[in-house]
Amino acid sequence: MLVSERAAELVRRDRDVATRLRGNGALGDGGAVVTRDAGIDERMRSLRQYGWGTKYRVERAGGRNSRLDELQAAFLRARLPSLDAENARRRAIVAAYASGLRHPAIRAPRAPGPDCVAHLAVVRSPSRDALGRHLAECGIGAVVHYPLPDHRQPGGEEADPAPLHVTERACREVLSLPCFPGLADSEVAAIVEACNAWTP
Fold it and tell me: Which helix (H) or strand (E) holds 87?
């Protein structure tokens, strides 16, 4: 992050400062908050990422996700010609999981249709955390999208939200397997093998 000389000087004088970075080196809209105050630092870090206190847990109202700037857009535009091929590769990976996962305690994803971008390869298991630990021990990165449903987020509007049993069960069971275009067929096969070999 680039911080203007003036902002750096104010911090050296024990003053907090917020500055826009356009004109100070940023490509597009950007900004910085520079502070020595731990409370301000924690609040700003939370607000820049949805209001999260911890990953996937909204604890502060007013948070945003607005990180796309022109530089990122330029990179995305440069990648646009490969989008169809990347989506096809992700579909092939999810299809391999759908056909290869045979563990009785793992619900495999459905084979994707031709219009699916297969952004995530989500499996479900009532023993999701144990499966995640097993995969980590095998050197396989799997993540939970999302562990806490929106209606249970502490930063939400509802003081006493109604239970949504299907949603809450899904949040306890979902686990996303690796699914990115650069994943080799041999790696997909190893992930399938590790899942099928798991002992809950």
Answer: helix 83-100
State the pLDDT at residue 84: 86
Residue 104's identity, in one-letter code, is: P
Which residue has 């900004």 as its token pair? 31
Q: How many domains does the chain have?
A: 2
> pTM of the full predicted structure?
0.68
Give DSSP secondary structure letters for 93-119. Answer: HHHHHHHH---TT-BPPPPP-TT----
Look-up: residue for tokens 């686990």?
Answer: 175
Please state the φ and ψ torsions of residue 118, each to the nearest 5 degrees. 50, 50
Q: Which domain holds residue 111?
A: 79-197
The strand pairing partners of 32, in sequence order, are 19
In this structure, how many other beta carbons lie within 10 angstroms of the beta carbon of residue 162? 6
Helix (H), strand (E) at residue 124: strand 121-124
- Among residues 158, 177, 166, the alpha carbon closest in space to that of 58 is found at 158
Q: Specify the CATH number for the domain of residue 134.
A: 3.90.1150.10
Give me the DSSP letters along 158-172. Answer: -SSPPP-HHHHHHHH
Q: Is 124 found in the same domain as 53?
A: no
pLDDT digits (tens, 9 = 90+) for 37-66: 888 888 888 888 888 888 889 898 888 876
